[in-house]
Amino acid sequence: MNPLLQRYPGDVSITVGARTIAASLQVPAQAKGLILFAHGSGSSRHSPRNRCVADALNAAGLGTMLLDLLTEQEDEIDRTTAQFRFDIALLADRLIGATRWARQQEALRSFAYGYFGASTGAAAALEAAASLRDDVSAIVSRGGRPDLAPHIAEVRAPTLLIVGGADPQTLALNHKAMRSMRMEYGLSIVPNATHLFEEPGALAEVAQLAASWFLHHLKRQL
Q: 107-147, pLDDT tens digit by residue?
């Protein structure tokens, strides 16, 4: 492990309402910002794609919290029935609960907070930010579905949409969402990348774009 990284406190359990969700939390020494990750359907906090981005953010001096917004039982049901993956209100509520939990931790409460969302997790991030308003300083969406966030016009946090150049369906849905966006926003297209950004160098570009966006916008709150 990078000696500059502190596991604070590593894997944690967070109670939101009547459910308990899992998270992986890492905070570099001297960090002042925390990015909460909301993954999409069929993924988890162990996703190598999100961990690749989280490692880059850690190297840039930002803390990261990778979340499983569904319980293990809910995830098992969802993999068979798809019951929860498009329940944006539920996912957003879990993300709000995780954000409030982090705010209650003495070592984290003064941080500037951001959200990184993938697929339907991006919609959850936008919905949570619409509710929490100024408590979220920046958002990045990777291959996300911002079109599924019904309160997107109420989001204040500057938002970066990252889409693969070889993912025309998601790009069209992001363009649709942009028509309702009222916050500062940007669109970055990674050339030749498909939905999962599996092409050589694609995720590295996503990580660089995300780190630049968060560092630029979170520093206003530091």
A: 898 999 999 999 999 999 999 999 999 999 999 999 999 99
* Domains assigned to the chain: 5-221 (3.40.50.1820)
**34 closest CA partner among 13, 12, 8:** 8
On the CB side of 32, CA atoms within 13 Å amount to: 9
Q: Which two tokens stand for residue 100?
A: 């409030």
Q: At what angle do helices 88-103 and 120-132 cross, to 10 degrees?
A: 60
Bridge partner list, 142 = 118, 162
Flag whether the pTM goes above 0.90: yes
The amino acid at residue 17 is: G
User: For 156, what's the count of Cα atoms within 13 Å in the CB-facing half-sphere?
Assistant: 7
What is the 3 state secondary structure string of the chain?
CCCCEEEEEEEEEEEECCEEEEEEEEEECCCCEEEEEECCCCCCCCCHHHHHHHHHHHHCCCEEEEECCCCHHHHHHHHHHCCCCCCHHHHHHHHHHHHHHHHCCCCCCCCEEEEEEECHHHHHHHHHHHHHHHHCCEEEEECCCHHHCCCHHHCCCCEEEEEECCCHHHHHHHHHHHCCCCCCEEEEEECCCCCCCCCCCHHHHHHHHHHHHHHHHHHHHC
